[in-house]
Amino acid sequence: MSNYRIQGATGDWEVVIGLEVHAQVVSNSKLFSGAATAFGAEQNSQVSLVDAAMPGMLPVLNGECIRQAVRTGLAINAEINRWSRFDRKNYFYADLPQGYQISQLYHPLVGEGTILIDADEKAGIPEAKHIGVERIHVEQDAGKLMHDQHPTMSYVDLNRCGVALMEIVSRPDMRSPAEAGAYVRKLRALLRYVGSCDGNMEEGSMRADVNVSVRRPGEEFGTRTETKNVNSVRFVMATIEHEANRQVDVLEAGGKIVQETRLFDPDSGTTRSMRSKEDAHDYRYFPDPDLLPLVLTEEFIEECRASLPELPDAKRARYIEQLGISAYNADVLTAEAEMARWFEKVLDNGAEPKQASNWVMSELFGALNRLGKGIADSPVSPPQAAELLALVADGTLSGTLSKQVFEIMLDTGDSPAKIVEERGLKQTSDTGAIDAVIADILGNNADKVAQYKDGKEALFGFFVGQTMKAMGGKANPQVVNELLKKALNA
Known about the structure:
It contains 15 helices and 16 strands.
């Protein structure tokens, strides 16, 4: 159970959260037309006659969009409805030329499922929790109104009109901003693993409608508000934080919460009223007469199931149980599909899993953060990383030398073997050369040698450091340790 509570003047309040996530389906064409779906295209350059609602134009269902939605449903262990139907949601708006949206109200494609969010004590999630998903239905997106292009007119871009969306509706199972943030991150990760949505919230391909109400712990649900089109995990959490506190303030002042649609202002971190839902719109839903009911075969569903990749929870468990990777490292490495794919390519090139995971978590992530790059833009490839780790494992490079080589790889893109060869960075285990350096170090620090022999054993690290420094970091640390012990105890 979440321990998140809002402390009001009259006692504690609990927040109740449900999310409706709209995820754009990855497909080359729209849900009911052959128009393209590429992001960033010139306005109104991806609009078919169907999208523009020209007379006599009939929708033709894109089977790839259905396949992707079914695969998404299977990834959250949801019921796949063998029979579903498209309905018309009737309303007039300038970005919807048909005067209706084709959606699925009564008979959605995907039924109930669950998404597991992991425990995170620091974030206030004391234990793992299953968040219920009520349904996933497929619908077409509307176009976009642009109000900043002309002083007196609004322009309409219909490029998004007809793009396929999955609306993923959670149950009101979340009880804190942290749980909601974890849910959105996990859902986005699942969509990216499956390949059904790219999850790029900043581009609008995934956005959330945030439903929030408050109540005294254990009481019935309160009246909820819905904040539309929130486009980042951070903003989802900020929306909940502000809206819950606002509702508590209203109730404690003796007021009532109005069921309404609100908007989040990222500049102020607050929500504001957009329209009341006191008088619910009558959308006059009815079955779309131009589309037959959708009937799925068992063969199609099993093909969708067989096409699923290893999903993050299963991958995390395998990393821990079979590869011996720590739970924390496994969490991070499996959080995003792209990261997991990069890491597994390192293993495919022969790297040892524990060594590779530790190196990725420390050296690689540190470098990428410093450079402001993501894993997709890493200057070092997985085969190069595996080659570097192999040089450490076989004793060619010490840990110190491997850091030097890695920095050069980041700058030049050269392979580690080439760098080692050209710059003479190979680690040495030449006992004669190391003994000579140790003799000089001990001779120049006779006072510290005497202190060491009198029991000040912490000085051993000083002698190791001086020896490594004198040899430019190229001496084998294990050999240095052995020879130093022998020399100091002689």
